[in-house]
Amino acid sequence: MELELNPLALTGIDDKRPTIIAGPCSAETEEQVMSTAHQLAKNGTRIFRAGIWKPRTKPGGFEGIGTEGLAWLKRVKEETGMLVTTEVATAKHVEECLNAGIDILWIGARTTANPFAVQEIADALKGVDIPVLVKNPVNPDLELWIGAMERINGAGVRRLGAIHRGFSTYDKKIYRNLPQWHIPIELRRRIPELPIFCDPSHIGGKRELVAPLCQQAMDLGFDGLIVESHCHPDGAWSDAAQQVTPDVLSYILSLLVIRDEKHTTENLAQLRAQIDECDNQLIEVLAKRMRVCREIGTFKKEHGMTVLQTTRYNEILDKRGAQATLCGMSAELIKRVFEAIHEDSVRQQMEIINQ
Ligand code: PEP
Ligand code: MN
């Protein structure tokens, strides 16, 4: 299904890349919302975000201030002139936001992964002309992401945008949510007229990753950024580690290099993003292999076996070399790589045996 889109035209500043949306992960208190909003507005932010209903992995965390917070967002609009946006996950959220005059809605990653919930939101949006931003689903599934946008578009919403917030994985990693840049790049190829925002806060999960991720997004030709910013990040009730103060955000944005001739650098940046992605995967797979090796070390210790099992080692080198040839790579290179990996595995198993 083809999407029928109108330009997002959020604030009339759309012609200037990037469009910035900033604000706290959650609206916590009226004071925190107003203080953050005034600081952001003073620094030039035109669109304010704050979560009112918060999807939390486990019960017991701060699940959002709820309806009460909508009045605070209204106050933000009145006092600063910024547009305001919040996350909706149910038809009731949509209805309450529309009544409160919220300007832009966004659909969260957990909701995008659930077609029933997205359809419920779409039905509640029938005949309503409000911009909607759709975050990628938590799992790396481009079709599910596009499908969610098709549902919202099917309800008549023409001003749509996508937000790339990374994808969750089981294993430990540098990023809270893996960027897997090739997925939004493919989204751009499939639907070129769809504005794509990057959410460096949820990709990185840590403050220090916000700036480099913003730059990467700009190098890849993203249209906007949605960044979590809080007047006292360390005391935030949700996502404290990834929020930055309005002043830090302003500094990060001032350092961004925005290349206007988007297309000259975009291709190289896209290829480099693919290399980064491959290297991330290599490192994660190697880390997983090392964990398994250490488990084997424990097994060998418990069963009184020697660390070096020569037959197994030769078998690995031969098999991996042959596989490499089949994949069009040099068997010699892959043997050298596996010799290095094996050397470290032996060293780690020796440590376990001698513990
Ligand atoms: C958020 O933006 O605060 C949020 C909950 O994001 P996501 O849906 O990307 O996890
Ligand atoms: Mn958050």
What is this entry, summarized?
Helices cover 50% and strands 10% of the residues. It has 355 residues and is of the alpha/beta class. It folds into two domains: 7-254, Alpha-Beta Barrel (TIM Barrel); 268-353, Chorismate mutase (Chorismate Mutase Domain, subunit A), CATH 1.20.59.10.
How would you characterize the overall build of this protein?
By secondary structure, the protein is α/β, with parallel strands linked by helices. 50% of the residues lie in helices and 10% in strands. An 8-stranded parallel beta barrel has the order 1-2-3-4-5-6-7-8, surrounded by 5 helices. Helix 1 runs parallel beside helix 2 and helix 11 crosses helix 13. The radius of gyration is 24 Å and the shape is elongated. The site of phosphoenolpyruvate has 9 residues, from helix 4. The site of manganese (II) ion (MN) has 4 residues, from loops.
Provide keyphrases for this structure.
355 residues; alpha/beta; TIM Barrel; Chorismate Mutase Domain, subunit A; eight-stranded parallel β-barrel; 13 helices; 50% helix; binds phosphoenolpyruvate; binds manganese (II) ion
